[in-house]
Design brief:
two-stranded antiparallel ribbon; 6 strands; mainly alpha; about 65% helix; two-stranded antiparallel sheet; about 5% strand; about 325 residues
Amino acid sequence: MTSTTNKFSLVAEASLDGRLFLARAFVHADTLNQMPREQMDTLYQSIAAIAHKLITMRTADLSDESALRTHIQTAFTLTSLGLEYGSKGDLDRAVQLLHKTRIVKFFQIGNTLMERLLDRARHLLEHAVILPPSRDEERSLGVTHTDLETEGIQIYTQAELEFLKALLIYRTTIRTFQVTIRDTDLSRPLLHLTEVETIDRQLACIEHRCDYVKALPLDNLFMLDPPLSIFPNPIERLTLGLMVNLLLYRQADFQFDEDAREDFHQLAYVEGKVREPFRQQLLDWIAQYLEQAQQPEPVKAYAVSYWDDCLQIEGQAVSLQESQRSEEN
């Protein structure tokens, strides 16, 4: 009885975040005197009912106030996203829709938008990994089990892992789209449809990176020394190895040492900036390779952007080395 009372009191005490489109629509309606207070109260009670249902469906422990508050916030968020989507962000249109449409409809729209993203995030968390060969595959490669690195290689970075995990509880860690997530914020609630659109693009990046990586010749990937799994961004390391080998030795390989990396720097960079002929040569190579591998255009376009981004990041490492050498001299 206490937990049930607690559940209802928490919903009753909850207030709409003023940054939500739904809250702005309520303020707009009130300012224009287009919605009686009684109707606004009814709409709020309808959202409270949605929150009650979410709590009942998704919370095993009704004494967990943190979980209860999360589901209450989710009810507000999904309803707001649905209204923003249905009105195309137009406040006048939103007020009209609130007059003639049941509030649960907006929740359903917002829930559908988010579930599509959540399904993709769950799939990436489970499948965005390169697994070591099976025993049969090892035998076909002519190696023993102890010769191989046995840990799977994540295709997403640690920052992207936090992004995916946050999304599963209707939160985000990014403010802008990034080729690879490098800059993150503390996890915060989703507020606007533009954030949903940014998340959609960001998920597509990780999906395209999976397709790009899995199209590469990965036969000896788990025999690299040191193993890729020790690096914080293994796919960036893999890509750098491929670029080093292509420019220095004209072969598609991933193994390289610091001497080869230094030779690559000397050849491809000047004052931390990649030389344009070599940049274009590498970008053309990956585009042509994925074309031959019959990868779709979005994957090819992403891979080219990803390689370009990796080249810029490596240029920062070159600049740092040059700066350190200058200080030593």
